[in-house]
Specification:
Layout (H helix, E strand, L loop, with lengths): L4 E6 L2 E5 L4 E3 L4 E2 L3 E5 L5 E7 L7 E4 L2 E2 L2 H18 L5 E7 L10 H15 L6 H11 L3 H4 L4 E4 L10 E5 L6 E7 L9 H7 L6 H20 L3 H20 L10 H15 L5 E3 L7 E5 L3 H9 L6 E6 L5 E3 L6
Parallel strand pairs: 7-9
Antiparallel strand pairs: 1-6, 1-16, 2-5, 3-4, 5-10, 6-9, 7-8, 10-11, 12-14, 12-15, 13-14
Helix pairs in contact: 1-2, 1-3, 2-3, 6-7
Bound molecules: ligand DP6.
Length: about 325
């Protein structure tokens, strides 16, 4: 029997147009399309081995046995892959992130993209990017975008088959940098999976979803033309709109901290002074500051001066999820 083991590396991504809320929670069909940039310098490396001698699936994350909830989420994803491959073997899953869990950077996108690629390969499947992306979406919406590198769009649809991500521009199309200002490094109170389920309780969600196609169009155009100021305007608006939905949900989600707002104001001030930079925030308090590579130093120095910014992670635009040797460095 061929060795049923494979290792994959995938990167997280930062969305310019956000995915928030599902039209179908069970299938994880997003309420609206989203566009992101894959982050080269952060990664998850995941090894999957199907093994008949195991009693059940095991999941080790950063050298520790995972929580039962995390193992269950991995098992659910493995079940889809086992079903496709026609196998019933349990698997051991070992995953490492090269960024600390306490950095407030979600590892579900990179983790589930790497898991989906490694598990499908270990199960003997050779899936194309579209199928991998669709499968990854079932585990985590943003993971569907991390299958691809560069600038990536996740398409909304009413069916499982129709909702997958596709690249809109390669990583070298536009040398942008993401500077992640860590203002709080403890675990977040309400994660995305729970948050998505609250989106529809906000009276602002229908307006956000209804106007998303227009923002997606403008973002596609801005990326295509490398038009930074248009991208900045639309991405900040989209991030603020998502947080407005979060803040007006029942129960409400307030992720911003005082330092978060200080960073946002500083970014806008820099832009008024002629420095091309914008902020965008995920389901947490840590602003991502996006700028062209040749402005990263001035932006980093300026943000670093704000008291309350604990550290800054820097990343360039990254490539797609890929298979690697198990022994390769992260
Ligand atoms: C705010 O993909 O983390 O980062 O599908 O439940 O895993 P699950 O949620 P997730 O949601 C991402 C939310 C976001 C915006 C985005 O990345 O588009």
């Amino acid at each position: 029997m061929a060795e049923m083991q494979a290792t994959a590396v995938a990167h997280p991504n930062i969305a310019f147009i956000k995915y928030w809320g599902n039209r179908d929670q069970e299938l994880r069909l997003p309420a609206n399309g989203s566009i992101s940039m894959t982050l080269a310098d952060l990664s998850s490396k995941t090894t999957v081995q199907f093994d008949p001698s195991l009693a059940h699936d095991s999941f080790t994350l950063n050298d520790k046995p995972s929580t039962e909830a995390a193992r269950q989420r991995v098992t659910t994803q493995l079940d889809f892959i086992r079903q496709m491959a026609g196998i019933e073997l349990p698997a051991s899953v070992v995953s490492h992130n090269n960024f600390p869990a306490a950095a407030g950077i979600a590892s579900s996108a990179s983790g589930f993209a790497a898991l989906t690629l490694a598990a499908s390969k270990a199960a003997g499947l050779d899936l194309d990017g579209k199928t991998l992306s669709r499968l990854a979406r079932r585990a985590s919406g943003s993971a569907s975008r991390s299958i691809f590198g560069g600038f990536v769009e996740l398409l909304p649809a009413t069916t499982d088959e129709g909702s997958f991500a596709q690249p809109i521009a390669a990583a070298d199309h536009w040398p942008l940098v993401d500077l992640i200002a860590v203002v709080e490094d403890s675990e977040k109170e309400v994660g995305s999976t729970q948050g998505h389920q609250l989106a529809n309780t906000s009276p602002l969600q229908p307006a956000r979803v209804q106007s998303a196609p227009q923002r997606l169009e403008l973002t596609r155009e801005a990326i295509g033309q490398r038009d930074f100021s248009r991208l900045a305007q639309i991405a900040e608006l989209d991030s603020d709109m998502m947080h407005a939905v979060m803040m007006t949900s029942t129960p409400s989600l307030h992720y911003w901290l005082p330092t978060t707002i200080q960073v946002m104001r500083k970014i806008r001030q820099l832009r008024r002074q002629g420095v091309p930079v914008f902020y965008t925030l995920d389901a947490g308090p840590n602003p991502h500051c996006i700028c062209p590579e040749d402005r990263a130093e001035i932006v980093e120095t300026t943000i670093d001066e704000i008291q309350g910014v604990k550290r800054i992670f820097r990343s360039e635009v990254g490539g797609p999820a890929r298979l690697v040797e198990n022994s390769s460095p992260d």
